[in-house]
Structures
1.
Amino acid sequence: MTRSLRVAIVGAGPAGMYAAGHLLEGPGGTYLDGRLQQLVDRPVEVDVFDRLPTPWGLLRHGVAPDHPEKKLVETVFARTAARPGFRFYGNVEIGHHVHPRELAEWYDAVVYAHGASGDAPLGIPGEDLRGSLSARAFVCWYNGHPDYRDLDIDLSHERAVVIGNGNVALDVARILARPAGSLRGTDIAEHALTALENSGVREIVVLGRRAPLDGAFHNPELEELAHLTGVDIHVEDGDVSGDHDPGPLDQDSRRKLGTLRNYAARTTRGSSKRIVLRFLSSPVRIVGHDRVEGLLVGRNRLELDAEGGRRARATGDEILLETGLVLRATGYFGTPLPELPYDDRLGTVPSIAGRVIAGGHTVPGRYVTGWAERGPRGIIGTNKKYARDTVRSLLDDARHARLPLPGTLTAEAVDGIVRSRQPQVVDHNGWLRIDDRERRAGRAARRPRHKLTDRPALLDAASGPPPNS
Ligand SMILES: Cc1cc2nc3c(=O)[nH]c(=O)nc-3n(C[C@H](O)[C@H](O)[C@H](O)COP(=O)(O)OP(=O)(O)OC[C@H]3O[C@@H](n4cnc5c(N)ncnc54)[C@H](O)[C@@H]3O)c2cc1C
């Protein structure tokens, strides 16, 4: 009988699930360039490991709860997970329960898709004070990530400051500003909903180092702010007026400028909350004794550098914003896995076309995709293309006998070892039970799901009665 090609994938986020989908689309083949191509003449089996009891990565713990339409892609991942040859090992951490060198021995090939779960440091004094946290931690908290449910978030102060000008900064500003009642019908974690309902935050300042048009946020996220009920939007310190000629602009920038001009021209409606988009402003120091009391902000002006690029330069003017909560939305960053090459400058696993590189050479049988491959950039759909390219490299290597020695263990043997080291594995059926329990609990409250947010509850649901029982 033909032996299957056995592949391990580390991480059940969008990148890992797209890679699994490409590997399992056709037995030994995948849709590349729009058609099913038979790349290896044997069936493929995929074991996906995730350190959490739940799959889908940042689709569950990153995407904002008030963006349910972005979560529809989970039906694609659910279809992949239901395919023959797919196995899920949730609650199994690679580098802890199982080591990368073991995966390399057990499987024919390993795809790393473990994302970027650290923070890019801001590098200013006071960063570690209580009340200063990464937007990543805050997002995990409101999305019910089990490692962040007990985070100490103090929403009693009138002003919160979000440092950064990307979509994540706008997500957290929006969640803080929204009337909490409007989040009731979402899958936001219950503890976060309660805290937001009791929040004293009235003003959210979003700080951008450079000019309005340099903001990394996308137009839909910027425009969405206009539709928040009971929230005024202000633009400060960044000339978006019609008097200012920004030079030739592409279509996206023209649209962004139009939105910002509208915000700048809006008269205050006296709403109970406001979001202030403050540009040309850099955080200098977080001040406070044992917790955050304020943020010292330096004002910038733009200068042209030798290459004609624009640089923010400090003017020397500084102001103190009183606040009790500083959220640093200055980027996610990769974290190394033991025994796996890591570029600490970029926070990624070095690779070419998805093949892992060490010392200038490819490491046979090891692949990488998603944010672990290219850093924390790109939306969910971006990962599909990268996963396809990585899978293409893998299947091509399999076809041309460039994989190392065949994996040494059968599926049953791997299953036995993994369960002996982590008896509380959540397999695919376990996830279906969690999913069913959350959806049922949500239905009663007219919510898409009521997320379980601590490990014991998740493990209890995973071992409970099967769906429809
Ligand atoms: C706050 C936020 C909001 C976003 N909103 C949107 C949006 O609205 N629309 C959109 O298109 N995109 C959005 N994105 C981008 C999108 O989430 C990413 O493109 C995508 O999640 C990256 O996929 P990934 O699989 O590489 O990483 P991840 O989604 O992070 O998945 C990595 C997985 O690996 C697991 N893992 C990590 N280490 C280990 C280990 N040692 N062992 C086992 N498992 C491990 C993790 O638990 C996780 O499940 C958002 C991103 C963020 C941060």
2.
Amino acid sequence: MVYKTNDTLIQNDAEMQFYKSLISRLNMPLLYMKVNYPGKNKDNLLTNSIMQLMEEIITDIFGMHVKMRLFRITEDGPNVTLVIDKDAVDIKKTSILIENNHVLGRCIDIDVYDNFTGQAVCRKDFGLEQRTCFICGDNASNCLEAQRHSDDQIIRLIHEKYKEFTEDFYVKKLKR
Ligand SMILES: [Zn+2]
């Protein structure tokens, strides 16, 4: 299996070996998710809360297709791995919907690795535009490369989104 690591979330070789062995052992696609949190302090209360929430949401969506789940803390901060018994492209399509439409979707990154090709499924594989930046709306990778936004600015936005989500959640609960 050959992995192109340059355009995937998992950049660390040892980590990649770990995921590679999982995929080949279980022979199913793998979903990897982390918070899009800048800087060194990626393991904190905010990122852990967001990952726990998103893990629940995604596990609910894929239901019985989820064959294995892992919650880990690595250099990426808290992250979730799900092995899902479903077509990799379908998983990717669902994860794009979450990234685009969920309040917290803009704060997370999701990669889906295909067990047949061993590659991460890309948005452009099915004609979709690249992700847009959640601050200025330009192509997200341009902003990342040009370091257009400060860590503080990004972290503040993640805080706001989390607040928005939890307030909305409790309002709905009270109305019930
Ligand atoms: Zn931007």
